[in-house]
Specification:
Layout: E1 3-8, E2 14-15, E3 31-35, H1 37-43, E4 81-83, H2 85-91, E5 95-100, H3 110-123, E6 128-132, H4 136-148, E7 151-157, H5 162-170, E8 174-178, H6 182-194, E9 199-200, H7 209-213, H8 215-223, E10 231-235, H9 240-255, E11 264-270, H10 275-282, H11 308-317, E12 321-325, H12 327-341, H13 347-350, H14 352-361, E13 370-375
Parallel strand pairs: 5-13, 6-7, 6-9, 7-8, 10-11, 10-13, 11-12
Antiparallel strand pairs: 1-2, 1-3, 4-5
Helix pairs in contact: 3-4, 4-5, 8-9
Amino acid sequence: MYLTNLECAACERGHPPGRLHNLCESCGMPLLARYDLDAAGAALAKTSLATRPANLWRYRELLPVADPAAVVTLGEGYTPLLRADRLGARLGLANLYVKDEALNPTGTFKARGMAVAVSMARQLGATELAVPSAGNAGGALAAYAARAGLSAHVFMPRDTPRANVVECERAGARITLVDGLISDCARLVAEYCGNGGGFDVSTLREPYRVEGKKTMGFELAEQLGWRLPDVVVYPTGGGTGLVGMWKAFDELAQLGWIDGYRPRMVAVQADGCAPIVTAFLAGATHATEVVGATTVASGLRVPRAIGDFIMLDVLRRSGGTAIAVSDPELLAAVAELDRLEGIFPAPEGAACVPAVRKLVANGEIGADEIVVIFNTGSGLKYL
């Protein structure tokens, strides 16, 4: 609608948006969508959002899909932002919130990215889509591809939680189980798509999943009355949500809907797979791939992310940090969050609880600050 071009996040080379793209044709880094925000702002008044449906397409002028007939939706987005007073009291925080992404279709935040990516792929003429997945992205692709009438091929580690495999099967996706990690699956997807097998919709290897994820940032601002929290705590694997929210904040500021204030962004990883934490603490601009990565939180078992340099830049520019927690800590937090607030989180989201506990204890989060933790999916997916 108001999409003007795609811009490389590294070398800034422009790419035309009217055809399917994966990575930058010059340097092989992720592409980001850019908009005519002056025109979008003239067409979309902030006050008009109150009359729009409670899903991510309420921000349609700030999304890339030009043809309304191409939109593929299951009602994703506009998930609740819930006060967590009992958990907050236990952690020593007066203003703790949980953004509960478990209420998305397919039970996780992955629905947001796939809704927009599949819609754009459909608009641009793709017929088969492929993705490497630790579970939830595969389930989301399978569902949205089925909704769009497209074919999906999901490459998953063989030890992916069974619920995710069944979810893909029932939606009609073709599944390849791989003896290895998501990084091994990604190499097979690249080979498969390079041989004409389909279009690769891997994390940050196409430009539109991040556009779906950025709507979490739009919603945070809207649900908090067009101010941003002091701290955003986010479980980080591939990091599309972290990158997307920061992009959303920049776009909202350019529209004049928020001021220049930004939250401190916190990336949470599992200590058995913490490439971003290691790189952040070392002052590096890129992460080193983790060998033998292990964690029960399969969405955090991402040994290396192509958008690592973007994430690390966001953490540093925001004055934020990266922190790792252990599997026993995050598993205990699943029950803690459910008992105290009635929210049954996936272990990825639960990892935010011990992370916040540590950051409060060492003085990096103040007692009166507004803190938002993201539960990125439902614990039901792990039963």
